[in-house]
UniProtKB/TrEMBL annotation:
Residues 17-184 form the Pyruvate/ketoisovalerate oxidoreductase catalytic domain. Its EC number is 1.2.7.1. One of its GO terms (molecular function) is pyruvate synthase activity. It is an enzyme of class 1 (oxidoreductase). It holds the Pfam family POR. Keywords: Oxidoreductase, Pyruvate. It catalyses: 2 oxidized [2Fe-2S]-[ferredoxin] + pyruvate + CoA = 2 reduced [2Fe-2S]-[ferredoxin] + acetyl-CoA + CO2 + H(+). This is pyruvate synthase. It comes from the Archaea. InterPro entries: Oxidoreductase_gamma_subunit (IPR051626), PorC_KorC (IPR011894), Pyrv/ketoisovalerate_OxRed_cat (IPR019752), Pyrv_flavodox_OxRed_cen (IPR002869). It comes from Ignicoccus hospitalis (strain KIN4/I / DSM 18386 / JCM 14125).
Amino acid sequence: MGPPQMSLVEIRWHGRGGQGAVTASEIVAKAAIAQGKYAQAFPSFGVERRGAPVEAFTRIDEKPIYIRSKIYEPDIIVVLDPSLLGPKLAEGLKEGGMAIVNTEKTPDEVRKLLGREDVKVAVVNATKIALETLKRPIVNTAILGAFAKATGLVDLDALLEAVKEKVPPRTVEANLEAVRRAYEEVVMG
């Protein structure tokens, strides 16, 4: 008997315009495809301006994906901006789902803010990592390292390759460092 079949995993990304949530969702999809999986990524824009809340979506599966709608009941939420934390963010998150959050808070503090005791939480200070590696508070590549470690959906090497393809050439090394650091520094609870 082979390994168990993976079923569809749906991820909803929450950030603000300019933080890179859409790019992060695309990088995860690229990494999954590079590993022989099927994936799709797409944004949902409200008011398109820097700083406005943004949602993006990623689906990953072992078989072709035919759904094309927004994700209303994600398995995983990824939060790039901790100011967005609150019960509204966890709406629709499947029971026992996972939240991966850019924050200085502990997993227990995040669960309280989300109003959900049933969720697994992974936290990383992606803002600090981004400021130290990129010299800018663009947290998407740092949150990707935490995503890879916390979920196991994409391996670190595939993720690093996808980052190389997607970020501006002059920032490749700094972005790769951000991914690696977050992969090591993420705290799960």
